[in-house]
Design brief:
Chain B: It is found in: Cell membrane. Chain B: Belongs to the binding-protein-dependent transport system permease family. Chain B: It is a multi-pass membrane protein. Chain B: Pfam families: BPD_transp_1. The structure holds 2 protein chains of 2 kinds. Chain A is an all-alpha fold. Chain A is built from 13 helices and no strands. Chain A has 2 domains: about 60 residues, no CATH class; about 170 residues, MetI-like (MetI-like fold, Orthogonal Bundle). In chain A, helix 1 packs across helix 13. Chain A is globular, with a radius of gyration of 25 Å. By secondary structure, chain B is an all-alpha fold. Chain B has one domain: Orthogonal Bundle (MetI-like fold), CATH 1.10.3720. Helices cover about 70% and strands about 0% of the residues of chain B. The relative contact order of chain B is 0.12. Classes of the chains: A mainly alpha, B mainly alpha. At the A-B interface, helix 1, helix 2, helix 4, helix 5 and helix 6 of A face helix 1, helix 4, helix 5, helix 6 and helix 7 of B.
Amino acid sequence: MANTNMEKTSRGINKTIIYIVCIGLSLLSILPFWIMFVNATRSTAEIQSGLSLLPSTHFMTNWDVLISKSFDPLKGFLNSLTISGASTICAVYFSSLTAYGLVVYNWKWRQPFFTFIMCVMLIPAQASAIGFYQFMYQMHWTNSFLPLILPSIAAPAIVFFMRQYLLATLSLEIVEAARVDGSGEFATFNKIIMPIMMPAVATQAIFAFVGSWNNLFMPLILLTDKSKYTLPVMVSLLRGDIYKTEFGSIYMGLALTALPLFVIYFLLSRYIIAGVALGGVKE
Amino acid sequence: MRRNGVNYSKYGYIFSIPFIVIFLIFSLYPTLYTAVIGFTDMKGVIPKPIHILDNPFQNFKDLIMENVSFRQSLINTLILWIANFIPQIVLALLLTAWFTNRRLNIKGQGAFKVLLYMPNIITASTIAVLFSTLFAYPMGPVNSLFHALGWSDAPIQFLQDKNTARGIVSFIQFWMWYGNTMIVLIAGVMGINPALFEAASIDGANGIQTFFRVTLPSLRTILLYSLITSMIGGLQMFDIPQLFITPAGGPDNATLTTSVFIYGQAFKGSYMYNKAAAASMIMFIIAAVLSLIVFYLMRDRSEAKLKKQQKMINKAAKAAARGM
């Protein structure tokens, strides 16, 4: 009896420690962003005088200073939205199409093609960046959004995921039935298969969108015209000399670039967490 | 009535065409082109006719034998990666052990997962500039905090010291990624056959024994997978070191990673496209070797799974036979 009681108490202490650690880590996740949002509303003098966790009243001043110097958050937001939106649509649609081709049809190069996709899945984009830049430069496609959108049509990791999903959920009888009803192969894919794949498409779309939205390397080398900058590239302006001592507006700029992602995250966190879990065990 | 004669296999090719065409144009060609540039004298902003060098491997030789910055960038990438990966995997495993322990029954796991994963979704360049502002000298929030807590008498120049700068960059990477690793590992534990845990508990194993004898061995493949994908990700570490400190890679090249080196060579000042391309190819080879390892790992795993299934079927058949 005494023994089980002692065990219970020690487990109680352990649990308390675990909760303290978890809450501490949660605070560590929140605190930097909290300071960022709070400082976006404080004047530079207030920020320099010390730390505060409560917002102040200088929101508009910071905004005005930020806007007055070559930082155009609305433009950046629209550029990012255009690129991320278009490349997400390309990525999920064409990856689904490729995966469907790999699952439903029995063609000679099916297995070699899939093996090939697995091989190139992990090759980093940076490895081909110099050739990519030179190629785009010769095509006069720098400062165009196309080289940031079109490559997402070939997204090996998404094809891989979609293929696994189709293998698990699609019964070929549906395809057969559509054929009997006289539906063409392409129409079958668009009208019958895409709706079936929606759960997988939604998950992959979230990650494709966030990945494209957060991308810095490619836009940084391709876009030199300030009116074409995406938000991550624009953030690098905040590092420069123009905002050197305007801490309030630097925080304001940072908060603006992070805000859309916080909105997306808190609306979709359940699906995002589930998607991350799926990503790890997809093989 | 020729329906049965229709050969659908051509659609397999047709549906794969967009992927293949885009891959050839935007991925394969640039990679080959990068490789070729690595053997040439291409440099400068204004395009000039380029030539293959007399000794085609001159750029590679220069980088590996003579270029101190490049060697330093490889070493830095390794240091930064190790300093973020080890604490990351240890903490992720610890949290996984806690969250999946049914006897502990930790409440609020959903909320903890959401909060611990959060930094991973926010733009890395925003986070880099945010941390650089938080560690500002002389009066950034961290300096204010240290002063208020009495940890420091005078403001500290965090970004001037090599090891502190490296430590902060590693910490940011760790902070952004441990939640992700944790969620992947928890999903892995959920995938372990519950019968294993039941057997362990019947045999009287305690939580720690169960974790080291049952959970960890079952997670081996997922752990290896996380390790190698993290290595490939680490090789590309760019956003944080590029924007955290100006000039990028400072102080004294302490946070210069291979990607930052490549960017600096090609697009800053000297426009040494050939050197950058050669460095990219070295990075490509390292990534390719790592990818191959992942590839073999995953193949072995599915084969092992098939074997296991076969075994279970055999067992069931035997049991059924006995039952008769």
